[in-house]
Amino acid sequence: MKSLQKVRERFYWNNVRSDVEKCCRICDPCAARKGPKKRTRGKLQLYNVGAPFERITFGILDPLPRSSDGNNNILVVMDYFTKWPEAYPIPDQEVSTDAEVLVQHWISRFRVSLQLHSDQGRNFDSAVCKRLCEILDIDKTRTTALHSQSDGMVERFNRTILNSLSLLVSSNQQDWDKKLPFFLLAYRSAVHETTGYSPSQMLFGRDLRLPADILFSRPPDAPLAPEEYIEKLSSHGWRKCIIWLRKESAWLPRR
């Protein structure tokens, strides 16, 4: 290495070789000028979102089998802050269809977002979509060309949809749009690995009541009064403790 040789001719310190190699490696002008054999990757950028539905993303999941209602696409819309998802079965990918669903089913229920992110699909980058964002004062952004990973949240969600629907649909696969709401219920109530909370907790501040709660019940949201708590503890707690001790008695050392 020429740089190392030049340095050694004039200076000396411990680990001189590793220091020089590190300096050459992190020199952006040198790397850009010489053109490295291995493509360098840009630094990951952190995008901070300050409120629910401030920044949303949407995309199309296709193609799917034509359902009995004539749908073979899913318009996916997600919120970056709460990770709240919506998935709308649609019969085509026309720009008018996407815009109508976005306004009537998302914006009318939640709010007009500050920023809308999507891939570079023609329907998302059309004049109609640009005009809609202009009217509603929405900043429209898009992913890098041929790099859908920059919208990774939707890409991962689409894979989750396909994996889950494959377990729910019938053999003819024509009822997937009927099963989609049940998948959304499960997803919204599951803890998201990024936030550590479920989308319902992030949006509503509480868990969703699920069909399983009807069968197995769950602790009440409202705290019990001290007298009621003591009564339940005395009637149920000790009984469960005795049952547990009986089950564990086989493991206790006998004298």
From TrEMBL:
UniProt-listed InterPro entries: Integrase_cat-core, Integrase_H2C2, Retrovirus_Pol_polyprotein, RNaseH-like_sf, RNaseH_sf
Single GO MF descriptor: RNA-directed DNA polymerase activity
Q: Transmembrane region positions?
A: none
Q: Which residues form the signal peptide?
A: none
Limits of the Integrase catalytic domain: 48-207
SUPFAM superfamilies recorded: Ribonuclease H-like
GO BP annotations of the record are: DNA integration
Q: Name one Pfam family in it.
A: Integrase_H2C2
Q: What is the E.C. number?
A: 2.7.7.49
Recorded protein name is: RNA-directed DNA polymerase
Q: What is the lineage of its organism?
A: Eukaryota, Metazoa, Ecdysozoa, Arthropoda, Chelicerata
